[in-house]
């Protein structure tokens, strides 16, 4: 579904990524791990073409999309829950959901389903995006990405600021999605949840992929976790 | 001794009562956690305690003085500082400058026009200490805009600490930090306990239960339960409304 | 060394067209004189006053101090005149104004180095006032923008008009929509309207005047319907009255030729700015021929007294070095070639001396 | 008196609608897209000049209008492609500088092409003439046409912004372009089209007012500030606000100009009133803006920032 | 020393060399141009304080230029011809106007602030337009330049130029200290995040108002000098287009560096002189140059310079 090879990127003159290798197969859930400031979000930004890739290759579903415009990359079937929510403040909750909604023939997500997943949002549907509480915004960001009916969902700290119950709700939703064959790339601070959920872990350190393997393998190699995650 | 007393606080947006007759006491020296579902009104409460938002009615008393109508700056000077859930920093300034500005705020007049502030060692030293406390010493010269999300969250806390408050209002300080950084920050808060009174809003239950002396549960504008960590953990209503299975 | 003449005119911004007429008139005159003034080679330095007094003052200094201009022809606007008068005359050059004739320089403040070739600012309005009285307009509504020049022009009209002033409507500088004022005029039903609305304001007003169906009420004006605005007003302005000491069809030797040459050269009917600038150059030519440029006092004397071929026929300066001349009632007509222009209808006052001349005691 | 007051109220409202018409394009580009476009005034002027040219060439008002619209649309597309797209992600002040530069370039260009003398645009046969109103006063049919055009533009704009997907995306893109793109929308193309639409609306206003107003090189500058005033009073980002702001400015300006001195005379002696009226009249619009903004720092319908 | 002060000092030295150079090539007019450059550099500096460091984009700043100019006219009419007394009066008038208009304007932000300052600027403009005693919109000529200690020293263009240059150097030096002092950092903080500033115990309004008043006072001093240079005072000095030109100068030079403000003023005045002498359509060229600078050098001329320097070092 997604393959990233030797990705290098950065901001202005500062290079942050020095070689990220990452692949997500159809229907696979991959967790991107690394300490604060190691380049997880930067990887996501480069993947979506929001910052230019200086080297390396990005391919989605076999199509080379290196250097493509963000909307073309997204249209290849990627859905994004960005770090920091990035809700559209001047749109209502409902407009936030429908403005960028899209489906290629087989819509699995629609407004009613989102309202069902997040009843709290349904109550606030006429409110402006920036009138929501932090957690509500996070729900909206997840809902907005789902409404694009992606084949690969990318979640960058999607559970930040969510109450435990909602967090569980989201994890079980992700599990259902995975079961439906959706590919998922997830960044999250809860290693325990990730280990339960993901098929594979990719650990990055200072902008490089330093380890890849199954959760079980990571559990078997505590020195890896110790070295790169300090968990 | 009660440091902060909130009485019958009310705030509504149209028909939505976000703070709905809320009363709360925080004793000097305690770490008082407030938990509750998303949209319960926790941040709105902090906003009213810190003076960012004016309540519709009710009163806030800090250290025996009614501060319901005083502005944010005076509250900070009285010893009441806060951190923001949605990171609020000076993006173009370096981490050190961000913190030094907070130090400057409580150390003499800022109507000084001549002496270079960058050379004021007293400001910088104190600021560096705060940065080191949250683990950002090596990021001192980096502009806030060029920091990762987690680093910004750490800086957010450092700025609040630099105010040297008597009461610290923390709005999800751990959100967005990685497991390792979260551990460090929890240790830091643990160390501050006793010296600084804290109101902590957090969805990270492990941290809450590890740190809190008392926990209040806020659901849609009202406090529905209040007590020690164990008491709250066992409360079936709280479990159903908020905690779910994760807390077990 | 050629004779250097600075043309300091507003050539940018909305009123640029006035400056262009003056510039073109002056250049046409120079062309006619084969590029010579009084037989000496001449060079014209065309400079944009930009309509800003401080910039104009700076440019005046540049012309006089740096470029060595002996004479400056300009400006169009009175406020610029006040700003450049000092730099030009103190720098040792003569100032010849092809349009602006503010009262400050006509009375006590008259200056031996300043010659106003056009008229004193108040005169056109006073002439209109006399005409309105004579024509038996018993009631008049006045309209002008709310600023000093507007006040001054209405004041000039009121000085000589002896009927009733029904109302004085003060509009905004640069006003676009006049429907409120037009409604008032319709309600008052005066015998006539007197307007001072220069430039785009006049175009807006005149068009809307006709569209509001007020054409039945005669309209008199100054600086409102002239050859710079008529191309935009066209039929809406036909029959409107104003006054002046020159018009394109004035029957004076050389005038018809000037107008034809101007049209051939620049593709439009000249306005008074062009004619006065032309006259200024002709005056300069004759004076230099008589006195040369070496002796400043001699040249000044020549400028004051020489008889030059003016497009206005007889021309002379008063004691304050403002013209003493005839004023006509003019009316907007369509020329045979389809263009619109003002046409001199009748003589209103002959040998008109401005009201301030007596106060000038420069000598 | 009361009658005249009502009539002047109407005149003020009509002037307000005219202002809205001119501000409409700017509402889109500045209000909604959050792009400070100082070149709006010259685009408006360009519309009027193109109208003057095409109407003369084709001999038809309607054909001229059509061509003027098409040309300003193309100009909008070209400008967006050459300049504006490079500025969306830049600070507001860069936009100010760049569009100020464009303003200089375009207005000088207009002067080079058409000269500095004002031009005439004849009124179309169909819309000339006037209908009788109270007493001897007649109301020009063309004014009614302008009012209709203004109202239609307002309605259309509101519908586009508030009711269509494009409107939502536009609002979303104004606050966070990268995010809209990352969610799969070609925001650049949308911005291109909307910017061109904004230019065309400016041109439309210019073309439409050309039979009523002087078509001269200063027409854009004088109206530019007024359009910003209108939008800011109404609150940036709100079509409703721009409309309300335009009406308010139109009415305050007109009624204040006419009745201000009369009312002042009621409270002070006539000479002082005349003097005060003279000083205050030109400030009215600005006093209004300062008053509105000190009462509501984000305009009448603006969102708190 | 970082690049910005070096550039600023280089500019000051460059300006100081103009009169001897003008004498050498026999064109005294160069000094007149340099004077104008220096006057506008002071005005641009004053604007940079609030715009560059406080993000307060004043679109009515020319009002202070005008206030300063009218202070000269009013003082002169009442027999006060001393330059420093006039500057004092100008600064006082500007401070009053800034305090009142600032107290209202500073309730707003961003574009609203731009427009409300424009409104106050226009009010000042129309006030002077209706001031018949001083010529209304025509303005009024000054009888002579201001005096220094009772002497007409400033009638000499070179002396006057060095007087202006001294004011510029003083303004630059003072502001440079100020922006790097505590006050400057607080001002910058309010630019970056007002909410955060309040949350660490500041009242941004006070600092903004103080900066706003100070900036108005400095600009009024520039107005005093401008009136003296042209020996003419008119409301045209406070037209909104003038405020716009000040902003353009600043943006062209680069915001928030002080040196950029000076460079912008110098280049703008210089280009105007140069281009206007070269072509009737100089505005077209000027527009193209501005456009080129914005599109290819985001931080104005100082940004360009910085990149050139960085390029040289790498
Ligand atoms: N806009 C920016 N400009 C410059 N540098 C940046 C910018 N954003 C991030 N960085 C730097 O890039 C590095 C990687 O940041 P990134 O946001 O990718 O980290 P992350 O792994 O997502 O961390 P976190 O877990 O804290 O979100 C960090 O060192 C950060 O300081
Ligand atoms: N300006 C506003 N207008 C309307 N509703 C608002 C406004 N601000 C907040 N709210 C609503 O008030 C409720 C409480 O918000 P608040 O931010 O206090 O929640 P919270 O408890 O902090 O939630 P979270 O855990 O998600 O951060 C939310 O439902 C929010 O949508
Ligand atoms: Mg991240
Ligand atoms: Mg919250």
UniProtKB/TrEMBL annotation, chain A:
<dbReference type="InterPro" id="IPR027417">
    <property type="entry name" value="P-loop_NTPase"/>
</dbReference>
<dbReference type="GO" id="GO:0016887">
    <property type="term" value="F:ATP hydrolysis activity"/>
</dbReference>
<keyword id="KW-0067">ATP-binding</keyword>
<dbReference type="GO" id="GO:0015807">
    <property type="term" value="P:L-amino acid transport"/>
</dbReference>
<keyword id="KW-0029">Amino-acid transport</keyword>
<dbReference type="GO" id="GO:0005524">
    <property type="term" value="F:ATP binding"/>
</dbReference>
<feature type="domain" description="ABC transporter">
    <location>
        <begin position="2"/>
        <end position="231"/>
    </location>
</feature>
<dbReference type="InterPro" id="IPR003439">
    <property type="entry name" value="ABC_transporter-like_ATP-bd"/>
</dbReference>
<dbReference type="InterPro" id="IPR017871">
    <property type="entry name" value="ABC_transporter-like_CS"/>
</dbReference>
<dbReference type="GO" id="GO:0015658">
    <property type="term" value="F:branched-chain amino acid transmembrane transporter activity"/>
</dbReference>
<comment type="similarity">
    <text>Belongs to the ABC transporter superfamily.</text>
</comment>
<keyword id="KW-0813">Transport</keyword>
TrEMBL record, chain B:
<feature type="domain" description="ABC transporter">
    <location>
        <begin position="4"/>
        <end position="245"/>
    </location>
</feature>
<dbReference type="InterPro" id="IPR003439">
    <property type="entry name" value="ABC_transporter-like_ATP-bd"/>
</dbReference>
<keyword id="KW-0813">Transport</keyword>
<dbReference type="InterPro" id="IPR032823">
    <property type="entry name" value="BCA_ABC_TP_C"/>
</dbReference>
<dbReference type="GO" id="GO:0005524">
    <property type="term" value="F:ATP binding"/>
</dbReference>
<dbReference type="InterPro" id="IPR003593">
    <property type="entry name" value="AAA+_ATPase"/>
</dbReference>
<dbReference type="Pfam" id="PF00005">
    <property type="entry name" value="ABC_tran"/>
</dbReference>
<dbReference type="GO" id="GO:0016887">
    <property type="term" value="F:ATP hydrolysis activity"/>
</dbReference>
<dbReference type="InterPro" id="IPR027417">
    <property type="entry name" value="P-loop_NTPase"/>
</dbReference>
<keyword id="KW-0547">Nucleotide-binding</keyword>
<keyword id="KW-0067">ATP-binding</keyword>
<dbReference type="Pfam" id="PF12399">
    <property type="entry name" value="BCA_ABC_TP_C"/>
</dbReference>
From TrEMBL, chain D:
<feature type="transmembrane region" description="Helical">
    <location>
        <begin position="12"/>
        <end position="31"/>
    </location>
</feature>
<feature type="transmembrane region" description="Helical">
    <location>
        <begin position="141"/>
        <end position="161"/>
    </location>
</feature>
<dbReference type="InterPro" id="IPR052157">
    <property type="entry name" value="BCAA_transport_permease"/>
</dbReference>
<feature type="transmembrane region" description="Helical">
    <location>
        <begin position="62"/>
        <end position="84"/>
    </location>
</feature>
<keyword id="KW-0812">Transmembrane</keyword>
<keyword id="KW-0029">Amino-acid transport</keyword>
<dbReference type="InterPro" id="IPR001851">
    <property type="entry name" value="ABC_transp_permease"/>
</dbReference>
<feature type="transmembrane region" description="Helical">
    <location>
        <begin position="38"/>
        <end position="56"/>
    </location>
</feature>
<keyword id="KW-0472">Membrane</keyword>
<keyword id="KW-1003">Cell membrane</keyword>
<dbReference type="GO" id="GO:0006865">
    <property type="term" value="P:amino acid transport"/>
</dbReference>
<dbReference type="GO" id="GO:0005886">
    <property type="term" value="C:plasma membrane"/>
</dbReference>
Automatic annotation (TrEMBL), chain E:
<feature type="transmembrane region" description="Helical">
    <location>
        <begin position="33"/>
        <end position="55"/>
    </location>
</feature>
<feature type="transmembrane region" description="Helical">
    <location>
        <begin position="111"/>
        <end position="134"/>
    </location>
</feature>
<feature type="signal peptide">
    <location>
        <begin position="1"/>
        <end position="23"/>
    </location>
</feature>
<feature type="transmembrane region" description="Helical">
    <location>
        <begin position="281"/>
        <end position="299"/>
    </location>
</feature>
<keyword id="KW-1003">Cell membrane</keyword>
<feature type="transmembrane region" description="Helical">
    <location>
        <begin position="205"/>
        <end position="226"/>
    </location>
</feature>
<keyword id="KW-0472">Membrane</keyword>
<feature type="transmembrane region" description="Helical">
    <location>
        <begin position="246"/>
        <end position="269"/>
    </location>
</feature>
<keyword id="KW-0732">Signal</keyword>
<feature type="transmembrane region" description="Helical">
    <location>
        <begin position="86"/>
        <end position="104"/>
    </location>
</feature>
<dbReference type="InterPro" id="IPR001851">
    <property type="entry name" value="ABC_transp_permease"/>
</dbReference>
<feature type="transmembrane region" description="Helical">
    <location>
        <begin position="62"/>
        <end position="80"/>
    </location>
</feature>
